[in-house]
Inverse folding.
């Protein structure tokens, strides 16, 4: 529902000017800018924590976040904002990354919290959440996709560069949805901690995946997937 034709009321079309007016109105609704979406998986965290507040980053996780922040800063891009999951490991990763990107505003959201987006196909034996989780988490993660992953607003004049710090399941689902792949295949991908996934959304709504789970900027001994 973001194509220009979906944004205007065709019933209000002026019969006298006809197609000329329609073309003008469509022009005002067309996106002009490209959005660059950088999806960052949180760094390694304490798996033994019982509550979310106890699942803090490990010393290695903090190193990974520093490396990710340095990598993002080295790109020389003018980042517009950092939107991050409200979970502890994502918030801590964001705080470390943001030190390398001074002045970039940070926004926390519950939409990007980790969860079970959709039952994977083929199924796996090592991970079987309760069926209710797919209904609860799936609706929320789909809402995150619809809210954040779309072409630029028609009022946006310049290309934008946005960072989203969240979780492996959320990123994998978003990648499948953005590329119009069957979302049930999300679990076939694997993402390292602190990795960078780069999506490009053109004004016409076309999406390209430039990098998936990149950690080439980390020394091999610093790379984990836990």
């Amino acid at each position: 529902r973001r194509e220009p034709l979906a944004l205007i009321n065709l019933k209000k079309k002026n019969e006298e000017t006809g197609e000329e007016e329609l073309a003008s109105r469509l022009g005002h609704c067309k996106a002009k800018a490209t959005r660059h979406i950088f999806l960052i998986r949180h760094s390694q965290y304490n798996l033994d924590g019982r509550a979310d507040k106890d699942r803090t980053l490990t010393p290695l996780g903090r190193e990974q976040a520093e490396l990710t922040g340095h990598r993002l800063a080295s790109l020389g891009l003018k980042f517009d904002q950092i939107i991050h999951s409200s979970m502890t490991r994502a918030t801590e990763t964001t705080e470390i990354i943001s030190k390398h990107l001074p002045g970039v505003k940070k926004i926390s959201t519950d939409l990007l919290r980790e969860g079970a987006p959709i039952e994977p196909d083929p199924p796996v034996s090592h991970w079987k959440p309760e069926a209710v989780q797919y209904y609860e988490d799936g609706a929320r993660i789909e809402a995150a996709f619809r809210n954040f992953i779309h072409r630029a607003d028609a009022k946006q004049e310049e290309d934008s560069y946005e960072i989203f710090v969240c979780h492996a399941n959320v990123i994998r689902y978003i990648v499948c949805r953005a590329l119009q792949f069957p979302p049930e295949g999300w679990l076939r991908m694997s993402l390292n901690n602190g990795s960078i996934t780069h999506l490009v959304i053109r004004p016409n709504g076309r999406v390209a995946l430039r990098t998936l789970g990149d950690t080439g900027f980390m020394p091999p001994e610093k790379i984990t997937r836990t």
